Amino acid sequence: MGGLYFSRRWFCGGITAEASKSRAIGYVEATLRDGLTLRQLLKRLAGARGHFAIAGTPEQVADTIEDWFNTGAADGFNVMPPIITQQLELFANEVVPILRKRGLFRGDYSGSSLRSHFGLQPLPSTRDAQRAAANLHSTAEVD
Predict the structure, then answer these.
(1) Sign of the torsion angle spanned by Cα atoms 131, 136, 138, 139
(2) Contact 116, 122 (CB under 8 A)
């Protein structure tokens, strides 16, 4: 890129560029296709940090999410607004209701924790775990 050589090892070694090879190829392709300078490429990547970005009306954003989901291009999304509080609230208040109406975003949850949403048993409390460990220790001393 720009006549510079980027080795396959980063900094002190041990981490190869293979893990991010497809992203690097995409950067090079965009640079060549669009005739970008390094400054222009960095400016393009700064906002979305290299991820696909969309801007539009709530309906347009919901349409894009629905299209990607229904065509198998994605099975979930990370929402990364540049201004966390205001734009995350805007997304939650404007886009999420549209996705719910389309059956693409859950509104009801069976439990009150992330573990319960995945059908996992709750973890024992720290106090319960300490008691169990103490009982195990005292039982081991008796034997």
Answers:
(1) positive
(2) yes
As beta bridge partners, residue 16 has 9
**Residue 28 CB coordination number (10 Å):** 13
Quote the CA–CA distance of 111 and 64 in Å, as a whole number. 30
Distances (CA, A) of 27 to 5, 17, 36, 39: 15, 14, 10, 13
Q: Considering all CA atoms of the chain, what is the largest pairwise distance in Å, rounded to the nearest integer?
A: 77
**32-47 confidence digits (pLDDT tens):** 999 988 888 877 777 6
Backbone φ and ψ of 83, nearest 5°: -115, 100
- Residue 121 phi/psi, 5-degree rounding, is -70, 150
**What's the full length of the chain, in residues?**
143
Task: Give residue 137's pLDDT.
Answer: 64
- Threshold 0.85, pTM exceeds: no
- Residue 8: pLDDT band (50, 70, 90) is very low
Q: What is the pLDDT of residue 25?
A: 81
Question: 21-34 vs 38-48: helix axis angle to the nearest 10?
Answer: 130
Extract the tokens encoding 34. 């669009």
Q: Is the dihedral of CA 29, 32, 36, 37 positive or negative?
A: positive
